[in-house]
Amino acid sequence: MEKKVLLVECPDSKGLIAQITNICYKHQLNIIRNTEFVDPDSGVFFMRTQLEGIFNDQTLLWDLDHALPNGSKRQLIAQGKKRVVILVTKEAHCLGDILMKVYDGSLPLDIAAVVGNHPELQSLSEKFELPYHWVSHLHKSREQHEAELQQVIDSYQPDYLVLAKFMRVLSPAFVAAYKGRIINIHHSFLPAFIGANPYHQAHKRGVKIIGATAHFVTDDLDEGPIIKQLVTPVDHTYSASDMVKAGRDVEKNVLSKALQLVLEDRVFVCGNKTVIL
Amino acid sequence: MEKKVLLVECPDSKGLIAQITNICYKHQLNIIRNTEFVDPDSGVFFMRTQLEGIFNDQTLLWDLDHALPNGSKRQLIAQGKKRVVILVTKEAHCLGDILMKVYDGSLPLDIAAVVGNHPELQSLSEKFELPYHWVSHLHKSREQHEAELQQVIDSYQPDYLVLAKFMRVLSPAFVAAYKGRIINIHHSFLPAFIGANPYHQAHKRGVKIIGATAHFVTDDLDEGPIIKQLVTPVDHTYSASDMVKAGRDVEKNVLSKALQLVLEDRVFVCGNKTVIL
Amino acid sequence: MEKKVLLVECPDSKGLIAQITNICYKHQLNIIRNTEFVDPDSGVFFMRTQLEGIFNDQTLLWDLDHALPNGSKRQLIAQGKKRVVILVTKEAHCLGDILMKVYDGSLPLDIAAVVGNHPELQSLSEKFELPYHWVSHLHKSREQHEAELQQVIDSYQPDYLVLAKFMRVLSPAFVAAYKGRIINIHHSFLPAFIGANPYHQAHKRGVKIIGATAHFVTDDLDEGPIIKQLVTPVDHTYSASDMVKAGRDVEKNVLSKALQLVLEDRVFVCGNKTVIL
Amino acid sequence: MEKKVLLVECPDSKGLIAQITNICYKHQLNIIRNTEFVDPDSGVFFMRTQLEGIFNDQTLLWDLDHALPNGSKRQLIAQGKKRVVILVTKEAHCLGDILMKVYDGSLPLDIAAVVGNHPELQSLSEKFELPYHWVSHLHKSREQHEAELQQVIDSYQPDYLVLAKFMRVLSPAFVAAYKGRIINIHHSFLPAFIGANPYHQAHKRGVKIIGATAHFVTDDLDEGPIIKQLVTPVDHTYSASDMVKAGRDVEKNVLSKALQLVLEDRVFVCGNKTVIL
């Protein structure tokens, strides 16, 4: 018996759950878990169904396509590891946490390669037998640098790009090339402290809690759909660099939790938000 | 258009979601939200469906009864406030929080009466125009005291009893009379520190976090199905009585959150656990 | 034996702790707890010392004044309840939580009066035998309204003003009249969502955590020194009004925790931040 | 200018802070931070003073010894990395997190070696150029196994032993050999679920929060002084093995936070508790 996940996204109408689950029943598939949500603002219906049984993908999708309203999207996803390329700059903690979680089996991920605009993390990547590509941005236009990045990335055909403290702003063209497939960690509790040096901003403002945000990347810097946020308390004894250090655990934890959700096909994008089923 | 909640609990089998949602669809009812869970240990299927439409309860339940397997339980619950009797001893914070939340509309609850084995909370109850019954346990056997409590409680025909820091151990007979309908707050992070003086036990052990647990009451003291738990950090500067004080906010917050879940018909009991849909 | 708290704030220099604790020792006072902090940016030394013994305030302060550098501030505060006036608009939960905590002895506070720009909370205040002043802002200039508020407030000579969801922006003149003595609860995790309707902003942005902030009021709206922040997780199923409701517990908890800190004379203001000893 | 930490532990008496800080002042040392605590049960005074200046250790300690009451302990600790030996069994996450934190500079630790009773973590240790000693317990008495462990450990003369999911119960003799210097991570929120298979116990009990506890090891299994505890919420959808997985992040986070506290010389043992200054 196989396990697959069915994702459906369509305009809401009465009877959708009955129709979809009927088709699954007709196909003798067992529903292990089913979750759905209707976004009240857009009227979009989202459903995620974990199925178990013997699949005939073609007829199942055919049946669904005939039952669902126009404008529906549906996907039937076989179990298996997603393939990612990780982009980094110099900081090791987010990359390191992902490497360790893949190493000990906590994150069911296939890391195709690590790409950095600096050479610092080559050694760490190679400890885990991963190809590391140093694609420097120095003396290159953004276009040229991104073209080089894309060439390396595309050679691995990843499902997702993970920006694990990749400290470069990406152009709309680059973002468009991987639409909905770039996951970033921003080192603040968005929308507080957008932009550069969030911990210094937080220190200056005297906040008592700091945080980090994992989100999909869109054209607007730090404005994409939020997947996960975590926080940690701080106090007056924290310097800005103490906050940076305290933030590392939050950053790596929030990124790996967001990855976990994405890898389990639980994250839908709904306008500028996420629906997590 | 009315809103109702359908609760189903039955042995798991293939096609249950399809069957139930089909019946809803046949009745022209719109599913606002649907959640289900199969307990892998017992093989019991639980489902909670929020419905909207014009209800014909009798035919809907008839259809369900013919579709569901033997041994199924189903309930169709109209929106409306649950009726509770609150039992107290001397401490005001849990009662006070419920009174305030009912007062400001946060908890959709109908408090029928407050019953205390001490007179201390009469004045607070009466501020909120609630009948208060002082049923002292002094110079009475447990049986006699509980018989008096039952007489008062039953005169109000409550849906639930809420033990808001009611510091008396209840007999199996009493518990049986309100099976599955008594909600207690225990002032520890169960199963740590079962029994008396949990904060003193916690202080003695030098824990760095304390908590509180809202649970259904069963025959075994502090052993019933847990509905909700919350915690708060403490440190070496906390005396046992500082812990008592810090615990008050946790206790009141966990009790009102548990009540909220129960009032929304989201809590199923599954063996000695809860399933919260 | 009495207990008092000594607060010192002065330019940092070597030997300050020794000098101050020597003076306490010379006065045969026992130090129950001592905490200090030097702000590295401003070079200001803050110290809070809980003392026990027989106090001769005049000679103790004389000795301190001769030992401490120019520009020092020191205060010797006898134990006792602070006197507050609470300002409200229509929402009951923050006021109600303070009332309940004073009622059950959790907050050692003397509530002199409640002042509202609407009549809604009169009944609640009077349940707890508190004078309520309805000072409507309708058909009045801000100056006129604030003059009326001040007249009522000043008749009670409070130590602190507590804005318990008082939904009016205060003028610099009003703030100056109670400099460093106005505590506000802002219904967001500042500096995210400054200004109006923070929960609607948060909902629109799709955040996964919401929060509330207790702070001292300064001329800049929502920009004063932060005393305490708390957060609570939310998800895609929360409407803006669900967030409002979820936020109520956070708001009341953060406000009463901030009050607790202020009442224990633990909060120093350091530029636009707080130092909490 | 050097930085050192002075730790004092002695019977409480009036004037201790003044005496100690006077001596520091006399030695022209600047106090960067000073924290103290008197345990009300035992009457023991604890103080930690971060000092900066030019140190004459011998005369400073001589002065302290003459000022402090009989039975005092004092230590003057130069800045520098502590040396640890890490003991492991098969699980990689706690070891991996420490390795990564040392690698990226978050934990100022000198890992002398990793010792395992299984060979599984050799490869991981060697990625980070650390000696790994496989000391199997098979076909050996506990005494014999511990004698072999001690031989390996003592060859490195570590300051602390870190049990990073080392799944062997240690004998009193072994514990005594490293008194107060063994830090363990227990995979439950102690004192709940002492002993074996805590996640299975937690799952069976239906708790809504799980946790982990870092503590010093004493003769009584899982009963030593607690350094740090952390928790994470779970729900009915978690199987016991989901709890195991969710617990990993808590375990590694609590262990590295406890290590951080110990490395900064902030943890005193007071009876069966810790005082963290």
Please describe the structure with a list of short key phrases separated by commas or semicolons.
Rossmann fold, 32% helix, 8 helices, 7-stranded mixed sheet, 31% strand, globular, Alpha-Beta Plaits, 4-stranded antiparallel sheet, homotetramer, 277 residues, alpha/beta
SSE inventory with pairings:
The structure is a homotetramer of 277-residue chains.
Chain A (H helix, E strand, L loop, with lengths): L1 E10 L4 H11 L3 E10 L4 E10 L3 H11 L5 E6 L3 E7 L4 H11 L5 E8 L5 H6 L4 E3 L7 H13 L5 E4 L8 H6 L4 E5 L11 H8 L3 E8 L9 E8 L6 H24 L3 E4 L2 E4 L1
Parallel strand pairs in A: 5-6, 5-8, 6-7, 8-9
Antiparallel strand pairs in A: 1-3, 1-4, 2-3, 9-10, 10-11, 12-13
Helix pairs in contact in A: 1-2, 3-8, 7-8
Pfam families (chains A, B, C, D): ACT, Formyl_trans_N
Organism (chains A, B, C, D): Rheinheimera marina
Function (chains A, B, C, D): Catalyzes the hydrolysis of 10-formyltetrahydrofolate (formyl-FH4) to formate and tetrahydrofolate (FH4).
